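=== RUN LOG ===
request id: a7f3
mode: sequence -> structure
chains: 1
length: 302
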Amino acid sequence: FWIKAKSNKHYKLLTRLSVPSRSVHALAISNDGQVLACGGTEGVKLWDINSRKELACSSHHHESQGTVSCAAWTLTRPTTVETLCYGTGLGYIVFLRRSVIDKRFQEICVRMLGSGFEITCLSWDSTSSEANTRIAVGMRDKIVQVLLLNTNSQLQSVFAVRLDNTVPKSVAFADNYDIYVFGLYDGKFIKLEGKDGTVVREFSCQSVIGHAAVNLKRGIFVVDNVTDGFTMYCLEDEGEEPVRTFTTAVPSMSVPKQVAFGEEGRVVAGGSDNGLVYVFDRKAGELLETLHHANGGLVQTI
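=== RESULT ===
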C-alpha cells in the first residue's frame, strides 16, 4: 500500500500485507475505501485497510471453483451496501456481502457461467441508478455477457454474445449501458450495444492489450501495450490514433500488466516485470515516480 503524502505530494509506503498464495491475480478496494479484496490461487481474502486485520469470509471453495482471476466491488442501491463480485478460472461468478448479524462476508450468489471457461474480466455499471446491479463479464471462450443481480440476490441474464476472434481482457460500461471490450491477443477495441450486444464500433489499437482502464469523465482509455509501456486513446475519437504513450523500461518478457487511472484521472499507474510500479502524469506524460514493490519480478496486479 502506498498513500500520497500531503507535505511533498510524493507517495509513501503505508504497509505490506502478506498472503500465502503463490500469486495474486486480483486486487480491489471497496468504494468506501475500507476493505481490500485479494484474489489468487488460494481463493479470496479480505482486509480492513485501517486496522490491517484480515476479515472473516465464508468463501472457501477455491479448490472446486478455481483460481480467482478478477474482482470488483459494487454498490447495491438504494442502500449503498458494498458487495464484492469476483470471477474464477473455472467460470464461476461469486458475490459476497457482509452480514449485518455477525459481520462476516458471506456468499449471496454463486453461479458457473456457460461451459466453465475462465472469467477473464468483469466490471460493474457504477453510472446506473437502478436497484439491480449490472455486471459485464468477459470469458476465455470469447463470450461477453451482461448480468443483473436483483434485489433478491438472484442473477439474471441480459444478453450473451460470442465475439468473432477476440478474447476479452478488460470490459467497462459506457454512460448509456453500452459496453467497451478490449481484446487480449488482437488488440481490438469494441463497443457493444447495451441491450443486445450488437457491435456498434470496432478498431484495432496499435498493440496487443495486456490490460485496459477507462476514465469515462475524461473520455479516455489506457492500455498496457506489453512492449514499451502504456498507451492512451480517446474513447469516441474516430481518428483512432494514440493520444500518448507512457514509456517504461523495456520489459525482459512480454506479459500482461495491469494499468489504472488514479487521483481522479490525473495520473496513470501500471505494473512492470522489474518489481516497480510506474506513476505518470496523465496530461504531461512525464514519469512522476517509481514505487518499489520488490527487487525484481512481475508486478502484474495493482
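=== NOTES ===
The chain is about 0% helix and 50% strand.
The mean pLDDT is 90.
=== END ===
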